[in-house]
Amino acid sequence: MAECKPLTQVIAQGGAATAIAQRLLALCYHNGEGVEANTVQAALWCRRAADGGDATAADNLPGIRQCNFCGATPVRKLCARCRKTRYCGAACIMVRQ
What we know:
Blueprint: H1 4-13, H2 18-31, H3 39-51, H4 55-64, E1 77-78, E2 86-87, H5 90-96
Antiparallel strand pairs: 1-2
């Protein structure tokens, strides 16, 4: 996985690679790699990448804030243990346990 700190530098510099860097930063936030998992930031950066013309980001955007169990949006919580599994409420987290 790409390092998130250099991605923020690429985004700050602008240019053709900006949308790709934004998508990769969204993945960092989505997966909690290099930063704390944050679905709001993941969705924000994915939306910016999609708006910048990144087709992969546009394809990924609908799934970023979906519940891993029922597909509801927006996701309200992350698993306290892994910080990666997203769920919408108590009923869905009980399925995992």
